[in-house]
Amino acid sequence: MLLSCFGLDEKNNKMATILLTNLTCIDCDSEVNKIIQSIEEIEYYELWINNGKTTILLNIEYNYKKTTINQINTMIASHGYRVELLNNN
Prior knowledge:
Layout: E1 13-21, H1 28-38, E2 42-49, E3 56-63, H2 69-77, E4 82-88
Antiparallel strand pairs: 1-3, 1-4, 2-3
């Protein structure tokens, strides 16, 4: 079960939960933060990294009228991460 601390504020927004693996950098959480902050259509996000720093769980709220979840996943994957969509509402 996945829990999130936020709900949808905008009628044009959707939520998604994404699992990122293939973390090989020392400070991947900072790098992922920069990537997410550079994607203008993401309104809000939460990021969790496991203790071994091998997996990141990312909850995002994004404007689906301006972008698709596939476009967001492609932007993240272009930095070398494996991206798996767990949930998209």
